[in-house]
Amino acid sequence: MALVMETGELAAFLDETFPQVKGEFAIDSLNDDELIVRLKVAERHLRPGGTVSGPNMFALADVGIYMAILARIGKVALAVTTNASIDFMRKPASGADLIAKIRLLKLGRVLAVGEALIFSDGDERPVARASMTYSIPPK
């Protein structure tokens, strides 16, 4: 499905609709096949031991898949997560942003399914993988 929102419009919509996460995420790239989004890691994202916490990795996947869906369907704030699964595979690097590569596996009229592979910036080995399903409200 073709893009109906570009990077700047998506970022502005996220900031406006979800001010509680304003400045936390940045879109690195967006095309018809993939969205790459970054969690700008700060001390508030860390758990004891200096690694990014699981809830923050989950948030990165959730926000990334949500934005990939909106990039294709437009401003639908009430598209909501209905199912989520995340596998934590290794400890993220300390002092590095987290990068999520997002692919939509299915974009239907009512449901969308996406996948996020999360990496520490500068490392090719994934630290987590998430799969999420979203419900798209009727128009």
Instruction: Report the helical percentage.
Output: 10-25%
Mean pLDDT: 94
Order of helices and strands: HEEEEHEEEE
Regarding quaternary structure, what we see is single chain
CATH architecture: Roll
The first-level CATH class name: Alpha Beta
- Give the CATH topology: Thiol Ester Dehydrase, Chain A
Number of strands: 8
What structural class should be given to the helix and strand makeup? alpha+beta
Number of domains: 1
Q: What does the largest sheet look like?
A: 6 strands, antiparallel
Number of helices: 2
Overview in brief:
22% of the residues lie in helices and 39% in strands.
Describe the structure.
Pfam families: 4HBT. Keywords: Hydrolase. GO terms for molecular function: acyl-CoA hydrolase activity. It is a single chain. The chain is α+β, with helices and mostly antiparallel strands and 139 residues long. The chain is 22% helix and 39% strand. β7 (111-120) and β8 (126-135) form a beta hairpin.
